[in-house]
Design a protein that fits this description.
The protein contains nine helices and no strands. The protein is mainly α. Helix 6 packs across helix 8. The C terminus is likely disordered.
């Protein structure tokens, strides 16, 4: 169980977007897993079982929180700003916003397969759907992310033109 904690935490952060809340989700999922350890089938994928529990905890809490109203108009949240001082921070922020624009099922499938390293089959088990459905969701999510981030080719990854020029100039010196 402990070996899965970093991956569970990353998945929880991607689901809720809040590190503190993600830590609470992971803790709750681990408590439920520990309490129901007798229902785990030896020889099956422990990580997939834990991810399923985490996903169910998140969805249960989401249904509860839907009825709560905190900063409904977002005015307080909009007043909190922090300007990133590095390009990587800006790019990560853009990526996070683009990821938030994906439908929940596509985002979930992409995180499981692309970031958490689960196979399509394992992701399908976690999401309780067909493997083809996961493949379709991941493909649609990747396509939509590329559109949102204006990525047209592999050359669009890595340093921008100005940074490449600066690095090239340093190498010649």
């Amino acid at each position: 169980m402990l070996a899965a904690v970093p991956s569970l935490r990353a998945f929880a952060i991607s689901l809720c977007g809040n590190v503190d809340r993600a830590d609470d989700l992971v803790q709750e999922a681990l408590l439920r897993a520990w309490g129901n350890l007798d229902s785990f089938e030896p020889g099956t994928n422990m990580s997939a079982w834990l991810f399923t529990i985490l996903r169910n905890v998140f969805r249960s809490e989401y249904r509860k929180r839907r009825r709560e109203v905190e900063d409904a108009d977002g005015s307080y949240a909009d007043s909190l700003t922090s300007l990133p001082n590095q390009t990587a921070s800006l790019e990560m922020d853009e990526f996070r916003k683009a990821l938030d624009h994906l439908p929940a099922d596509q985002r979930e499938a992409l995180i499981l397969v692309g970031a958490s390293g689960f196979s399509y089959e394992e992701a399908a088990q976690i999401c309780v759907c067909a493997v083809g459905t996961i493949k379709s969701r991941v493909n649609r999510a990747r396509t939509r992310l590329a559109e949102l981030l204006s990525v047209e080719s592999a050359d669009d990854f890595g340093p921008d033109h100005e940074t490449r020029a600066a690095i090239g100039g340093l190498r010649r010196s």
